[in-house]
Amino acid sequence: MFFNSWEIIGRTTIVGILGYAGLLMILRLSGKRTLTKMNAFDLVITVALGSTLATILLNKDVALMEGLTAFFVLIGMQYLITTFSRKSSVLSSLIKSKPELLYFQGTYNEDTMKKNRMIKVEVLQAVRSSGIPSMEEAEAVILETYGSISVLQKVEPRKQSSLQNVKGSESFKQDSL
């Protein structure tokens, strides 16, 4: 139960080191996109990579090269999907959500908050975390595509808003943006 053999310990150690090194090399080759803040699509790939590494380490029936091939397939698919999603807005909308407005110029977007299971306390917390002492000083609070919350502080009028791709901002007067 606590120990089977030195051979299994040795295999796990060697395959663990080589599998880890192989994964790091593949991640470096795949570019920064693989390691960025995650949306749901990226999270699935990351979990699959972790599961694959665990399988390589603990299942003696899975050879190291099979595991490394699985890494290449997963990261290769992520590369292809993200490349094609840059060229196709339909594919992009299937794998990524749009940022959504939770709060804008003194008004909470209750429908968006309900849909995303957010409460006002979480919006207030995000504003405080951004160093803004009052809601009157917050221009907008946005739920980003990867789940974090961004807060924009009120500033002098500007020509082009950073809210231009945020779902829900079109319902507000454009001249106020």
Amount of beta strand = 5-15%
What class do helices, strands and sheet pairing give? alpha+beta
**Major β-sheet strand ordering:** 2-1-3-4
Output the helix-strand order: HHHHEEHHEE
How many helical elements?
6
InterPro entries: DUF421, UPF0702_alpha/beta_dom_sf, YetF_N
Transmembrane segments: 6-27, 39-58, 64-81
Subcellular location: Cell membrane
Domain YetF-like N-terminal transmembrane: 17-82
In brief:
The protein is an alpha+beta fold and 177 residues long. It contains six helices and four strands. Helix 1 runs antiparallel to helix 2 and helix 2 (40-58) packs antiparallel against helix 3 (64-87).
Write the layout of secondary structure elements.
Blueprint: H1 6-30, H2 40-58, H3 64-87, H4 89-95, E1 100-104, E2 107-108, H5 110-115, H6 120-129, E3 138-143, E4 149-153
Antiparallel strand pairs: 1-2, 1-3, 3-4
Helix pairs in contact: 1-2, 1-3, 2-3, 3-4
Structure explained in plain terms:
This protein is α+β, with helices and mostly antiparallel strands and 177 residues long. It has 2 domains: 89 residues; 77 residues, CRO Repressor (2-Layer Sandwich), CATH 3.30.240.20. It is 51% helix and 10% strand. It is built from 6 helices and 4 strands; from the N terminus they run ααααββααββ. It has a 4-stranded antiparallel sheet. The longest helix is centred in the N-terminal third of the chain and has 25 residues. This is DUF421 domain-containing protein. It comes from Metabacillus lacus.
